[in-house]
Amino acid sequence: MISSRYHLDGLVKMAKRQLLLLSSSNVHGHEYLEYAAKDICELLTLNNVSTVLFVPYALSNHEEYLKKVEQPFRRWGFQVESIHNQNPLEAVKQAEAIFIGGGNTFRLLKTLYDLNLVEAINERVLKNGIPYIGSSAGTNVATRSIHTTNDMPIVYPPSFDSLNLVPFNINPHYQDPDDGSKHKGETREERIMQYLEEKDSSHVLGLREGATLSVNGNTAVLKGLIGARLFIKGQKPREIDVGSDLSYLLKE
């Protein structure tokens, strides 16, 4: 168990763009959100957050999803309120911090558009500087677009453009090619490279399970348990180790 009230000497509060973008909430060998608990608690404690606004729209059963999310946050000393039990736009305007969980990215983004929340969340995070935590689908929608999600398009949002909290794309749950596999379908790397062939494509950060991108102002650092893979148009994919400075991606 991790307390949300531990000593924070040496940490400096940033006023703008405070993000934790997780590849997944569920990592093998860890409980729900556990692998990122220290980073989550530091971010929320640093900003004096007592209540987190949860956005459950990536799954259909919002109440069950809320129950799952409440458990770890309560252990850490934070309350959770779900946006589906409130006026959504007012809830975003009053939020101390926002957590958007995983599920289907297309369903999530469509609902954000349907409820006029895309611009509202963007403004609260980039202009007002409230913390944003995303996991899986919640990480997908935090980026420039959802073109590099792994999910099936079970519904159709009016645009693939998303919250644009960072000016590049992320592929959560990134999996490396398995040379020993008998499966001959396209690898994740091949699909991302196909996306980069498009004229208006952006850089793609492939977050393996257990990887987290931390963005604080104009600084971005890879955190978590494992490295990532970075894809840039016209270049060979490169390996990114935990602790690497990725701030240059924010200048795209």
From TrEMBL:
GO terms for molecular function: dipeptidase activity; serine-type peptidase activity. The keyword Cytoplasm applies. Its main location: cytoplasm. Its EC number is 3.4.13.21. Hydrolyzes dipeptides containing N-terminal aspartate residues. Belongs to the peptidase S51 family. This is dipeptidase E.
